[in-house]
Amino acid sequence: MRRLRAVLLPVLLVSLMPVARAQEGADEEATYRVELSAALDRWNDAAPEDRLKRAIEVTEKHLKADAADVSARLDLARFKLAAGDPDGAQAEALRAEREATGDQLAEAKALYLIAYQESMNVHLPSVKEKDRERAQKEFQAKFVELWKKLVEVAKGEPAATRLVQDDQDRIATARTLNLLGKPAPAIDKRDTKDELASLRDKGGKVVLVDFWSAQSKAYADEIANTLAVWERWHAKGLEAIGVSLDKDRALLDAFVKEKKVPWPQVFTGRGLADELAKPYAEKGWSVDRIPRRYLVDHEGKIRFVDVRGEGLEAAVKQLVERAERAKPKKKGE
Predict the structure, then answer these.
(1) Alpha helix locations (H) across the chain?
(2) DSSP states of 172-214
(3) Taking the chain, what is the end-to-end CA distance rounded to the nearest angstrom?
(4) Which of 49, 122, 171, 300 gets the most CB atoms within 10 Å of its CB?
């Protein structure tokens, strides 16, 4: 019997090792997601001042323990792009490619393409003028090659285009992570009806602040959903202020009239150069793309950025319900 135990015990231990390793991997993955969620928690006002930096730190720490986690590697590439490190993002996307298969392989190639383009945008201006034309041609040739490989893996140009657009949206949203939980910048402007459009008179309510343009297809595609959410939630505490970044007032007026947009519109004709679009550090709203959308809670803090589709109503519902719960209770309630 002792001999049998002596033979079976090592065999049993060896057979259990993959199970133990799998459990360790699952525990590590769970810990990573919890730590990442804490860093990104929009409701946590005690979260780090630099949420994006913390997200990178948490992801890098996790990948030291589990280098084969492709999903986390893709997260890291996006975070590094959002932080303005396209070279680092390229390296992470390339590592992800080596481990990825199927849909994740296509994601990795899309991220590498985006990172490559942003890297060239950073480096080309520093190339000596006599060498710039040659460098530009080399960049374009490699970009075309990368695009063709992505189209092949994604099984068609429409799918490849969607992948790139989706990742660009996620990266743009990641760039706004540090705004979550921050006090919303002031808006005190005369609107197109010469009335004051201000956040100050909307205390206790949820406010949608929409930076948009009548020439933006993405905004035009979303306006029907936005109007439907407004109609369902306005009476329950949803307000809105539009900031048109058009340079032609006629385009704004025609769009608002055609779509029957009911909320006030601010217009200066300066486009992205408008002072409201400046970086947050300069008391602006950090608008670097059109459209850009913010949801401000009843305390005047930014809680959601660039929510649309079904996500818009879900976000509004959360904020309105939180505002309702925060109201002082009447005697007897």
Answers:
(1) 2-40, 51-65, 70-82, 86-99, 102-123, 129-154, 157-174, 217-233, 249-259, 310-326
(2) HHHTTGGGTTSBPPP-EEEBTTS-EEESGGGTTSEEEEEEE-T
(3) 73
(4) 171
> What are the sequence ranges of the domains in the chain?
21-177, 181-326
Residues 10 and 16: their CA atoms lie apart, in Å, by: 10
**Tens of pLDDT, residues 221-234:** 999 999 999 999 99
Kindly give, in sequence order, each residue whose CB lies less than 8 Å from that of residue 140, ignoring residues fewer than 6 positions away.
Answer: none
Contact by Cβ (8 Å): 303, 295: yes
Tracing tokens 């994006």 back to the chain, one arrives at: 52
The CATH number of domain 181-326 is 3.90.550.10: no
pTM for the structure as a whole: 0.77
Hey, what amino acid is at 278? K
CA distances from 91 to 114, 152, 186, 253 (A): 12, 21, 40, 47
Per-residue model confidence as pLDDT tens digits over 24-45: 556 777 888 888 888 778 887 7
- Domain 21-177: give its CATH code: 1.25.40.10
Quick count: other Cβ atoms within 10 Å of Cβ 266?
A: 21
Domains 21-177 and 181-326 share a fold: no
3-class secondary-structure state, position 231: helix
Q: Work out the angle at residue 79's Cα, subtended by the Cα atoms of residues 287 and 85, and round it to the nearest 5 degrees.
A: 85
Buried b (16+ CB within 10 A) or exposed e, 28-52: ebeebeebbeebbebeeeebeeebb
